[in-house]
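Much of the work behind modern protein science is quiet bookkeeping, done one molecule at a time. The fold becomes a row of whole numbers, each drawn from a learned catalogue of backbone shapes. The protein below has been through that process, and both of its lines are reproduced in full.
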Amino acid sequence: MVKAILLAAGAGTRCYPFTYLTPKLFQQVGGIPLIEYMLSWFHGTPEIDELYIAVRDNTIAATLESYVDKRKQYVDRILRLFHKLGYKVEYTNPDFAIRVIQANGWGTGGDLRCALDQIVDTGSLGDDFLVCYTDYIINRAMPDGTISLQMNLSDIIEYHYRCKKALGTVMTMAFVVVEREAATRFGVGKFEELNGVKVVREFMEKPDIKEITEEPAINAGICVFNSQFILPNLDKFLPGKPDTGLERNLIERLAREEKPMVAAYLLNLDAWFDVGTLEQLVQANILIASEKG
């Protein structure tokens, strides 16, 4: 079984003024809180037995803990709301544990380090663990012609195991192809194919557009890590201090290693919505409504 960590400790400044009133996790898309879109991913992943949600402060932590406890009796109702929007959502993993932990708002790397320190203090991470950001909603065509809002995390986890066995990689990153102009706001990967799998040979966080090729593949905010590599190297790659980015502190450095360290998983999606800003959040609402089946 795999533990998962959802990084949700950002201040939400790009969604002001809405996040003055309501934390980012509870902003709504199609009338459903963003947190439920993310939880649906884990509900569709039988490999996940425990999810840790890292948030910024005690107030948000208390609110989220109360919500997680109360939502259990309304899971069927939440599913019906997704279906009413016209999308396919299935809870094949309804009973995984959800725990809320307080991070420090020190960037993706700093918050992951804070979460890992707390998790290791209270138990075991296992051999591999999954990390997801919270700023994305997806559409994925299903074989039966329906559209799913759930990421296929099981396939990413299986790919991670395969790459680790074949090449000894220590992490797997999901990437999605976007338009060239949009890629300047994200981390962009360049790949090499080895033994039938893609490995990251270069990673640039928020590059200048002159550095970006056609059909760039950007960081999709999903990673699977090998605990046996990451935990002994936390001080080296993820020091516990402010402004520690997972992208520059860890991924860029691992991609430069001669030995393949980072496997690349290319997502095959119908749509990938970034909801990191207020404008994008509103646009996602429009797009989700327009796709109603």
About this structure: The chain has one domain: 2-290. The mean pLDDT is 92. The first strand starts at residue 2 and ends at 8. The longest helix spans residues 107-122.
